[in-house]
Prior knowledge:
Elements: H1 4-13, E1 20-21, H2 23-30, H3 34-46, E2 50-53, E3 57-60, E4 72-73, H4 74-80, E5 84-87, E6 95-96, E7 98-101, H5 106-109, E8 117-121, H6 125-133, E9 137-140, H7 148-157, E10 161-163, H8 168-186, H9 191-194, E11 196-197, E12 202-203, H10 208-218, E13 223-226, E14 232-236, E15 261-262, H11 267-277, E16 281-286, E17 289-295, H12 296-306, H13 316-321, E18 324-328, E19 334-339, H14 353-372, E20 375-385, E21 394-404, E22 408-417, E23 420-432
Parallel strand pairs: 7-8, 8-9, 9-10, 12-13, 15-16
Antiparallel strand pairs: 1-3, 2-3, 4-6, 5-10, 11-17, 13-14, 16-17, 18-19, 19-21, 20-23, 21-22, 22-23
Amino acid sequence: MATKHEQILDYIEGLEVGTRISVRRIAKRLEVSEGTAYRAIKEAELRGLVSAIDRIGTVRIETKEKKNIERLTFAEVVNIVEGTVLGGRDGLHKTLHKFVIGAMQLEAIGRYIEPGSLMIVGNREQVHRLSLENGAAVLITGDFDASDEIQKLANERQLPLISCTYDTYTTAALINRAIYDRLIKKDILFVEDIVVRNPTTVSAGATVKKYIELVDITGHGRMPVVDERGRVVGIITARDVAEAKPTDLIDQHMARQAYSVSLKSTVASAAHRMVWEGIELLPVVENRQLVGVLSRQDVLKAFQSMNRQPQVGETLVDSVLQRFQEVRHADGSLSLVGVVTPQMTSSAGILGTGTLTTLIEYGAVLCLQRNRRSDMVVDNVSLYSLKPVSVDTTIDIRCRILDYGRRIGKVEVEVYDSDERAVKALLTTQMLER
Length: 434
């Protein structure tokens, strides 16, 4: 039987797009406490089912697919620009397809307006009217208001009419930044992208004989163990039952400490958990219910596939690394050579610790990959700063492998400013083996 929390989430998911939601209404309708309703609504917001807007409330919005994740709803635009809704509240759930800046003559503006777009403009009532009549929402900058006639038109057309205090340039930059951040997120692999749904499971009360029969049918030796509610209580492998009797219960031999991840976890964090805990299979849960599994082979295939995909958005790490060139040496060591730019420094004008650590970790992993051709993650960094590195300095990050085995690698990294050593670091990594 589903919990009250799960029942609320199912109820919210079944509501029509555009429906307003409140804690009190949910609590009364489903006969739960307001605290339970509040927690469920917050989780629904994290899942992208609803959006909360100041002075409006919480609204059921269209759930985005991964391919359309960069698209914003007008409700999200209101939050981004810290705006006030003047009219057209019933259209806040609609999706923004593009935005247009109304900095041109009225005759020319009509060519750029289309349904689903957002007109960003100042105090120009004729542009407000033309946009709404052609199916576009309006965002008024400069903290200007709209006439009663325009507000009435927005309500009739169910097109949001929004006002914000920012100027037109800043408003457009905020929206563009939000879209760009979505594009970066679109390239990040999440567990939900590669999870194996509806996996083979065995109950804790089943016999070892039943488990062996399932192994013969499916060919999978590792299985999640679930209770009568479908919740994960352990993991069973062929090694666990090697000396068991066919009549023994799974509950007697399973590993009870079953680590799990959620659908919204990144694949990178799941991979790190697998390496750190030395496990081959991770159950994927949602609302404490098993929804799938993730194996180490699934992770490796996903990373290999992702490396072949064109990147859309550039992260801060990408921006830093593209300024450095790789130099290989005959002894197997490796260097990253580049210039410290103002964006990489602290307010004092010296190379920031975060940027420095990023460069050191990247160099160490790259050095191991060039020599071992293995996937891996850094699990420990010891860093010693000998002198500050100032802006506009050309630095040489020299990486040398000290030791590596089947699972662990150790790398020494030294950062040179001209010929003077500025930083020294020691890193250990965990290998991701097939």
